[in-house]
Amino acid sequence: MKLLLHIWLVLMVLAGILVGCNRAPKYDQRLVSADKMVYQQAGKAKKILSDIKPQALNEPNAAYYNLLLTQASYIGYDEITPRNDSIISAALDYFSHHKSDKEKLTRSMIYKGAVLQELGIIDTSMSYYKNAELNADKDDDFNRGYAQMRMGNLYKEHNAYDGRDLEKFEQAVKSFRKCKNNHYLLIALRDLGALYRYRKADKAEEILKEAIALAEVEKDTSNFLNCVNLLAYFYNMQRMYDKAYNQLQRIKSLKPEFFAEDNGNAYSTFATVYANIGKVDSAEIFLDLVKQQNDYYSYNYLIPKSQICKARGDMYGYYKFSHKFDSLDRENQRNQDVVKIMHAELNCDEMFKSSQAKKERNRYMILATVILTLMLLALLFYRRSHRYDKLVLELKDRSQSQINDLTNLQDNINELKINDERLKGFILSHMGMMREMIDACYHEPNNRIAENMKRIVKFQDSNRDNWVRLYDYIDLEHNNIMARTRENYPQLNDRDLLLLALTCMGFSYIQTAIIMGYSNATSVSVIKQRLAKKMGLECTLNEYIDSFSQEKTASDT
Predict the structure, then answer these.
(1) What angle (nearest 5°) sits at the alpha carbon of residue 130, between those of residues 39 and 223?
(2) Whole-model pTM above 0.90?
């Protein structure tokens, strides 16, 4: 058992070393501050980063700096160039080789994909998004949700009408709900509601209304306008023109700069709905606003223009602009790039499953090796100790015989009224033999006989009564110290009383440790101090025992 214990301790030390080696480094507080505001205050984050000299940073902080610089540039709508790709690649390379910070590794994958998407390398971009989703920590719901939203946007931009875009946005919504990030939950709900309008009309209204309510809570005017506009256009598609009109009134009074950020989408909806309810002149006014932000060959212009022609009875114009709109729609649907990104995601899935299967096989191999090693060690230990079995049994029988003699003697004390000297002589003889056996154990620490002897002589529940009988002798020698202590200190347990008894008998620290099953003899001193404290003594345990001996001496005199 000692050999197995040593093996276990070595394994625990190695595990501690591995954990220490994988501990996340301590990052520069300026970078931590920039990280806290990079998502919603990218400009302020860039200002903090601009005051840092990257060449003065150590390797982990330099990688962190590169990640934040890419992130702030991307979120802040800076122009993305190949230089951005080299910066984020440096961060990704560091976090990939030093896996002490998995969150930053996941984030590096996401922004590597975002930079590649901006550069038009969409299939590789999808691979990085997918790897970020698959390798994110179990509790890292934010980065997982952000990667899912980026994949959904990529599919949506390339018209993946097979439901992949919906699936990704639905997953993103669940992830952002888990981590309670309302800002990105609102964005995911907005984009999901926009897709639901065409393919799941029964859910579109519910999702968009939730997004609108969340935008009001977050006081996000820009997204409030977008979501109300999407819901109004949904009502228009369903020919519920009154509801569409009522929704538009909620945003009509917003400042023009919010409509400018919307690229004319809301103006296009105003023009379309007003044309459908017969307010053609008002529709023309909004169409003119659309022209200022869109060309003549765009959805935002063609859809309301065709509806205005229809409302004026110009069927030729209606069919003309509708035909242009249909042609534009068919052209976008023929986009073949979606095939690339679909294959990229599928390849990542297959590679991840293969990697997981390999890790599982390795775990089983390691477990089998450990079990086999332990079995071999156990076999060697058994063969080595088998030679001592006969001697151990003889020693055990001898000890048991002594215990039985002590039991029989105690049972007959009251009836036979054996005098104190006879009891004292027997006890001293028994304790003397016990000391000899303990000393043999101590001088032969690796002997199987010694190990079994320790188990025989140490205090156990099964022989508690035998040790308690020793207390009668101690009471005779020490003025009823055991009886009075049990009465005055009811909080003491059996082991506390045994320690007191052994101290009264003059047992050494080594002998006491072996009997009580302690692995270290020096710990007996500490345990005696704790017992004195438990009893509330203002003196040591030995001084407490001496006080009873002095009382007995005084009374005898």
Answers:
(1) 35
(2) no
